[in-house]
Amino acid sequence: MQLESILQEQINQSIHKDGFSVDTLNLIDNYVNNILNGRTNLTRFNLQEHAGLCSADSVLIGAYIVSSYARASLEASCNASTSQVSPTNWEIDEAQEKYVQQWAEAKQVWFPNFESIITSSFGPKIAQGAEAKVYYKEGDSSVIKERTSIYSTLGKALEAIVLHNTLFPETQMKVIGFTRDIDGLFRIILTQPYIECERLATKEEIDEMVANIGFTDNREGQGVNYSGARLLLEDMHPANVFIDKVTGKPICIDCIVKFKQ
């Protein structure tokens, strides 16, 4: 994950040691707006993936820029040191969470007490897995998710949302903020369309669905992991792929998506 060098240097020059200055926030906002308006892009993503990036909306784009900055700054610091060649994933994740929280607080998209208000505001919890807590109010068109990172870094978790939206636009995720849960875990708050489940998809139906977008079973994940030319799909088990009651077709609610490299 790389941040364009010009933007990296501009943030370096404007950021305060204690957080984000107004100039830095405006700099990031301008870059986000240029991405949304098609005037610039992030070299990490191809054209189709940029559509997935934009559909996740401005909060994710801003956070992704900040997480990229955090990683690049940490790597530069390590490269300048004689004691350590490159940072560990743990160090990168810690730095990314720190900077994204500071940025989110400044942008008023950090919700410190989110779990205490979510049920009354967004409905009861209807599901919980290893990665997400899901809340839904009867009649709403979307669910609210608190998504924790099962990826090596927060930046990879944000990247995965972009890639999910690229592959599965019918269940695209829109990031609205960030929080920490009662266990102290950093969580991404997002919305996603509510899908009425007729039943869980079969292995054969999942195979056919992902084959249509260029993936094949990699034979390494008990039938739930798939490989494409550029991306990897994991955790594609039936609990994450429903048969939509409206269309009768399989639809991916959640999975692990990442670049091959």
Written account of the structure:
- With 261 residues, this protein is an alpha+beta fold.
- It folds into 3 domains: 5-106, no CATH class; 114-193, Phosphorylase Kinase, domain 1, CATH 3.30.200.20; 197-259, no CATH class.
- Helix content is 41%, strand content 20%.
- It has 8 helices and 12 strands.
- A 5-stranded antiparallel beta sheet has the order 1-2-3-5-4. The chain has a 4-stranded antiparallel beta sheet with strand order 7-8-9-12.
- β10 and β11 (250-252) form a beta hairpin.
- α4 crosses α7 (154-167).
- The longest helix has 24 residues, at 57-80.
How would you sum up this structure in a few lines?
The protein is built from eight helices and twelve strands.
> In order across it, which strands form the biggest sheet?
1-2-3-5-4
Number of helices, where a helix is a run of at least 4 consecutive DSSP H or I residues: 8
- How many extended strands? 12
Termini Cα gap: 10 Å
Morphology call: globular
| Secondary-structure element order, N to C | HHHHHHEEEHEEEHEEEEEE
Sheet with the most strands, sense and barrel status: 5 strands, antiparallel
Class based on secondary structure composition and strand pairing: alpha+beta
